[in-house]
Amino acid sequence: MKRFLVLCIGVAACFWLSCNEGDIIAKGKDYMLTVDDLRYEVTKLGPSANYHDTFDDRVRVVQDLATRKLLCDEALRLGLVTQEDLESALKDAESKAVGNAYHMWRVDKQILLPRIKTKPWIEKLDRKLHLKDLVFKVYPEALEAKAALNAGADFDSLAAEVTKAGSATLNDMGWIIWKDVGRDVANHVFKLDRGEATDIMRQVDGYHIYWLAEDEKFGLGIELLSLRSKRFVQAMEKERLEEEEKAELAKRYNVKFNEHGLKRGLDCFAISFQGGRPPDSLLNVVVATYEGGKVLVADLYSYYYALPIPSRSYIGDFYGLTELAMEIVLPELESYAGYEMGLDRLRDVRWEVKKAKEDLLVPQMEDYFRSKISVSEDDMKAYYEERKGDLKTSGRYRLRRLLLDSWDKVPEFRRRLASGEDFVDIIGEMSKDTYTASSGGDLGFINFGLVAAYDSVVSSLDVGEISKPFKTRVGVEVVRLEEIEEPRQLTYEEAQPYIRQFIVNSRANDLLGEWAKKKKQEIGFWINEDLLRTVRLPQPEYVRLKAKPSEEAESKKK
Predict the structure, then answer these.
(1) What burial class does residue 159 get, using C-beta atoms within 10 Å of its C-beta: 0-12 exposed, 13-18 middle, 19+ buried?
(2) pLDDT exceeding 90 applies to what percent of the chain?
(3) Which residues, 6 or more positions from 345, have their beta carbon under 8 angstroms from its beta carbon?
(4) Rg value, the chain, Cα
(5) Is residue 277 a contact partner of residue 309, using CB atoms and an 8 Å limit?
(6) So where are the chain's domains?
(7) CA 143 to CA 410: how far, in whole Å?
(8) What is the mean pLDDT of residues 391-408?
(9) What angle (nearest 5°) sits at the alpha carbon of residue 205, between those of residues 203 and 211?
(10) Exposure class string for 22-43: b at 16+ Cβ within 10 A, else e
C-alpha cells in the first residue's frame, strides 16, 4: 500500500511538472515566462506599443520582457542603484498600488455595479437654470446660513443680510446650461428644484451655496439626456462613496485634529498669503495624529503649494485645514486598509511593483551605455553633411488672440468687427484672457508643432488675416496672424548639440541591443514558438475599453 501511494505521488508530480512545462512561453538559465505572465503583460500594453497580436508582435513582447529583466539584473550587479534605494522605491510603489486597489474596491467598482436609473434625471437635466451663489470666506458662517435656509429663510433676504454684514458676497450667475459650469458644481445644482439650495461646497475662493431662482425647459434630445443623466448619477454616487470611505478610514485609524496645531496652521497660511515665510516655530507644530503617523503644519504648507494653482482650495479656517490634512493622510490610510485585506497579493499590485523596478533600473542602464559612447568632430561633421536638409528650425508664428466664454459671444464680436472696430480694441474689452488682453491679446511667437489647434488655423491664414471662431479646451477663440517665420537651415554650430545627442542615443541603442543578444545566448534563452503561435492572448485594456459599446447602443440593438 505504501509503495502504491509513493507511485501515485510520483505520477502526480510528473503530471504537474509536464503541465507547467507546457505553459512556458520562454526561459533561460534564471528566467521563465509563462502563458499567464504573457497574457497579463499584453493586457497592460499601451498605445505606443503598436501591438496588433501578430506572431512578430508576440515575439517582440517576449523579447522585450526578457531584455528588461536582464537590464535590471545587470544594473544591480554594477551597483548603479543601491539595494537600499531599490527597496525603498519598491516599498513606496507597493504601498501606492495597494492603496489604489483599496480605493478601486471601495469606490470605483461600486459605482459600476448598480443599474443607473435615469428617468428621475431626465426632467432635471432638460432645463436652463437661473442660479444665485453666496460665497463665504469662513465655513461656520456658511454653515449658519445653510441652517437658516433649511429652516425656511428667504434666500434673497438672507443674501442681503450676510452681504451687508460682509460675511459673504453674492454672485448672480444668470441663466446657465449644464456645460456652463464645472462637473463638480453641476452634479449638485442640476438636482435642485426651484427655490432650493445646494449643500456647502468648498472651492478655490471660499465656501459656496448655490440657489435655484428660476428654471425653464431647454429641449435637449432624449438620447443625449439619458446618456448625460447616467454620467451625472455616476459622478454623484462616486462623490458619496468617497466621502463615506474618508469618514470610515478616519474613524478606523483614529484620526484626531489638534486645535492648537490648527490655529498655528491658520497663522502660517495668513503669513504666507501676505507674502511672508512662516517661521519654523509654526511649521513644526502637530496638526493631526493617526495610527502610524502625524501631520505637521509644514506638511500642510508643502502639500498646498505643490498643488497646481487651479486645484488649490481656500484655506482660511479649521474646516479647510482639516480637509487639507485628510487629503494628505487618505492615501496612507487606504494603503493600511489594503494591506489588512491582503491586497498586496493582487496581480495588479505585483505588476506595478515590477514596473516600478524597471522604471528605476532600466534608465540607469541606458545612461550606462550612453556613457560608453564617444563622438568625434569628424563624426558630427559627416552627419551634418549627410542630413543637412533635415536639420532645420520648426518655424514659428506670432498671434493675437481673443478668448470668449462661449459661442453666445460670437455674434457680438462679429457685429463689432463688421462695424469697423479694431481687433485689438475688441480683445481689450471682450477677451476672457485678462493676462494678455492688456497687450492686445499678443501671444508672442509659438513654434510650429507645439499647439495643434493653432497650427491648423495658421496654415490657412495670411499675415494680418483674422480666423473664424474655433473651439478649444479653454473656450471659443479667434486669432489674427501677425507674423510668420518659415523654417530655416541650422548652421553646424547650432545643430552640433542635437547631432551629438542623436549619435550617442543611436549608438547606445545599438550597443544595448548587441549586449542583450549576447546575454540571451549566454543564458540559453529560448522561446516556445509553437505555443506562442497558438496560445490565445487578450487585447490590451485600452483597446477593449475603447471598443466597448455604450449601453445606449446596446439597448438600440435590442
Answers:
(1) buried
(2) 49
(3) none
(4) 31
(5) no
(6) 2-78+528-544, 253-340, 377-387+490-522, 393-485
(7) 40
(8) 88
(9) 65
(10) ebbbbbbeebebebebbeebbb
Grid cell of 429 as nine digits? 474689452
Residues 6+ apart with CB under 8 A from 338: 98, 99, 101, 102, 344
- The two beta strands, 286-290 and 293-296, are antiparallel
Query: How many Å apart are CA 14 and CA 7, to the nearest integer?
Result: 11
Task: For 214-232, write each residue's pLDDT tens digit.
Answer: 888 766 555 556 666 677 7
Helices (H) and strands (E) in the chain, counts: 24, 14
pLDDT digits (tens, 9 = 90+) for 473-496: 778 899 999 999 888 888 889 889
Which set of grid coordinates corresponds to residue 423?
481687433
Class of domain 393-485: alpha beta
Q: Are 440 and 428 in contact (CB under 8 A)?
A: yes
Q: Residue 86, SS3?
A: helix
Helices 318-340, 139-150: crossing angle, 10 deg rounding: 90
405 Cβ contact partners less than 8 Å away, ≥ 6 residues apart: 432, 475, 476
All residues at 6 or more sequence positions from 189 whose CB lies less than 8 Å from its CB, including other chains: 129, 131, 181, 198, 210, 212
CA distance 40 to 351: 9
Angle at 194 between CA 193 and CA 196, to 5 degrees: 70
d(CA 91, CA 449): 40
Q: Nearest 5°: CA angle at 494, between 488 and 499?
A: 105
Tell me which residue of 547, 542, 518, 546 sits closest to 42, measured CA to CA.
542
Q: Which residue type does 432 have?
A: K
